[in-house]
Specification:
By secondary structure, this protein is an alpha/beta fold. Helices cover 39% and strands 13% of the residues. It is built from 7 helices and 4 strands, in the order E-H-H-E-H-H-H-H-E-E-H. It has a 4-stranded mixed sheet with strand order 1-2-3-4, with helices on one face. Strand 3 and strand 4 form a beta hairpin. The longest helix is centred in the middle third of the chain and has 15 residues.
């Protein structure tokens, strides 16, 4: 992709997939090793949806001691917390008939632990995180570059991560 001046634009798009977020995190870990710098330094835009949005926020904001998480640290997020977030038992099929498949408690606790009070305005490169507004029945895109012109467009990273990961049939929505 190129901009109006013909300069190449590098976009990293990270797809969703629940616990399968381990796969793009492993691939991104290898990519970071090969380019020998943080991923946010190698891309003009990082976009993600669902678990890909969580990864994008992790590698693209100052959420880890005033810097980003490495993809390897995000692999650990999934390995250490995936079983609790996507906990199933014999009642899961019955629960899914009337309620979301999973309780959001473990997901929300994990997001709070990893992102704490970080705000979207700490984005190290432009971020685009997709979500869906169930009330308006429209897609909603969190765009970090809009914060400069409109400070009310700033949200806590935990809220953005929760909004992108809230598949209506899996977790209760927050937006």
């Amino acid at each position: 992709m190129a901009n109006a001046s013909g300069k190449s634009i590098k976009v990293l798009a990270i797809d969703g997939g629940g616990i399968r977020g381990i796969i793009p995190a492993v691939i991104l870990s290898e990519l970071q090793r090969r380019i020998s710098k943080d991923l946010w330094q190698g891309f003009d835009l990082i976009a993600g949806t669902s678990t890909g949005g969580i990864i994008a926020l992790g590698i693209g904001t100052k959420c880890n001691r005033n810097g980003p998480y490495s993809p390897a640290q995000l692999v650990d997020l999934y390995v250490q917390n995936g079983a609790a977030i996507f906990h199933k038992n014999f009642l899961t099929p019955l629960r899914q008939l009337m309620l979301p498949k999973y309780s959001p408690d473990a997901l929300e606790g994990t997001l709070e632990k990893f992102f704490q009070g970080t705000e979207l305005q700490t984005a190290l490169t432009p971020l685009l995180i997709s979500s869906y507004d169930l009330q308006r029945q429209l897609p909603f895109f969190f765009k970090s570059h809009k914060i400069a012109a409109n400070p009310s467009y700033n949200w806590k990273v935990t809220e953005v991560a929760r909004a992108t990961s809230g598949a209506a049939t899996f977790f209760r929505r927050c937006i």
